[in-house]
Amino acid sequence: MKNTHAGLQSMRGQWLYTRSLTLAVALGGAVVLGGCIEAAIIGGAATGAAMISDRRPAEVVLGDERVEITAYSRLNQRLNEKAHVNVTSYNYTILLTGEVPDAKAKEESEKIVAQIERVKGVVNEIQVAGPSSLQSRGNDTFLTGRVKTAFVGPQKFSPLNVKVVTEAGVVYLLGLVTRKEADDATEIARGIGGVQKVVRVFEYLPGAPAAAAK
Q1: Domain presence at residue 209
Q2: Residue 211: count of CB within 10 angstroms of its CB
Q3: Which of 107, 128, 149 is the last residue of a domain?
Q4: Is the pLDDT of residue 205 over 50?
Q5: Final residue of a domain: which of 113, 128, 143?
Q6: Rounded distance between C-alpha atoms, residue 149 and residue 177, angstroms
């Protein structure tokens, strides 16, 4: 791959910048990182307030960040510039979204991240297609912001406990939640104009019955 090392350095530098963003940006924006795999970390800035409110232990929050960085690095080493893969780690479960040129690349992406230390599961939502346009990615960023903003109004749960990732109009919801919180978040997200579908990637708290992805 051309300029792989330079791309990785750029990606790491951008990631460090992302961690210093304010909570307001975390609740409504996305940052696209450089390198052969364009990485959109949506709502990932771990500010002090977010760390306090997060149901994950602090070491797990930091561990998820390390997993994401490791995943981007390994994917950059193996996939070419035609791939666009986003990695989101939550409580050591990884969500993969984006586009790759063929089924082999999709399968390889999953195997690469599954081998990272502490990863306990991979939800592979990568599509076999050409890279999405900047306009499409901008729309996804906009939808993510709208969903997060909508979570704040009803005050049915803490928005900091639900991570939102949007890809091609499909909203993925992650977090450690109760069944009611999951249902409330799903209902709110489905009511946002432009959202094509809502997919649950939740981990349910003890005593909360599990639900299939919707």
Answers
A1: no
A2: 13
A3: 128
A4: yes
A5: 128
A6: 18
Tens digit of each residue's pLDDT (9 = 90 or more) over 59-112: 999 999 999 999 999 999 998 777 999 999 999 999 999 999 999 999 999 999
Q: Residue 101 and residue 64: Cα distance in Å, rounded?
A: 27
Instruction: Give the C-alpha separation, 75 to 69, whole Å.
Output: 10
Token duo for residue 159: 């928005």
Query: Is 213 within a domain?
Result: no
Query: Hey, is 105 helix, strand or coil?
Result: helix
Taking only the tens place, the pLDDT of each residue in 1-35 is 444 444 434 444 444 434 433 333 333 333 333 33
What's the burial of 135, exposed, middle or buried (CB within 10 Å: 0-12/13-18/19+)? exposed
- CA 167 to CA 103: how far, in whole Å? 18
Helix segments in 48-203, DSSP class H: 48-53, 58-78, 103-114, 134-152, 179-190
Residue 80 CB contacts under 8 Å (≥ 6 apart), including other chains: 1, 36
Domain region containing 138: 134-204
**Tokens at residue 163, please?**
């991570």
